[in-house]
């Protein structure tokens, strides 16, 4: 059974940093494309970052490029999102997702990130 469990969210001041994690089970994370998606209150989901299978090329939304870094630890079967220079507009629930092919993705329960002074 595929399981994705996010953690590491919290309250951080503008300009601060936070790392959210995703523990994957039921599959080998390095064999699948993985991504981070966020959803702010009253808004639709926003793609943040994707990391490809195999070589692990990463891509970022323009809104986070240069501030966020997506990585994975194949030995631990973990996915990470390091977020620096956080802004209030980064406030959202952050979800990790596993590619299921055909444009479908499996999602975890999410972790809340709040950027506020």
Describe the structure.
- This protein is mainly β.
- It is built from no helices and 11 strands.
- Strands 2, 4, 5, 6, 9, 10 and 11 form a 7-stranded mixed β-sheet that branches. A 4-stranded antiparallel β-sheet has the order 1-3-8-7, with no helix packed on it.
Element pattern in H and E = EEEEEEEEEEE
- Uncertain stretches: none
Gyration radius over CA:
13 Å
Mean pLDDT: 96
Strand coverage percent: over 45%
Q: Quick summary of this structure?
A:
It contains no helices and 11 strands. It is mostly beta strands and 117 residues long.
Secondary structure elements and pairings:
Layout: E1 3-7, E2 10-12, E3 18-25, E4 34-39, E5 45-51, E6 58-60, E7 68-73, E8 78-83, E9 92-101, E10 104-107, E11 111-115
Parallel strand pairs: 2-11
Antiparallel strand pairs: 1-3, 3-8, 4-5, 4-9, 5-6, 7-8, 9-10, 9-11
Keywords, please?
four-stranded antiparallel β-sheet, 117 residues, mainly beta, seven-stranded mixed β-sheet
């Amino acid at each position: 059974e595929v399981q994705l469990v996010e953690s590491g969210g919290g309250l951080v001041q503008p300009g601060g940093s936070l790392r959210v994690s995703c523990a994957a089970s039921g599959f080998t994370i390095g064999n699948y494309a993985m991504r981070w998606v966020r959803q702010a209150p009253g808004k639709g989901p926003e793609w943040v970052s994707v990391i490809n299978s195999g070589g692990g090329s990463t891509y970022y939304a323009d809104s986070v490029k240069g501030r966020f870094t997506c990585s994975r630890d194949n030995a631990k079967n973990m996915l990470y999102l390091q977020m620096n220079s956080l802004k209030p507009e980064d406030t959202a629930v952050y979800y990790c997702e596993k590619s299921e092919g055909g444009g479908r993705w499996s999602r975890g329960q999410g972790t809340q990130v709040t950027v506020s002074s």
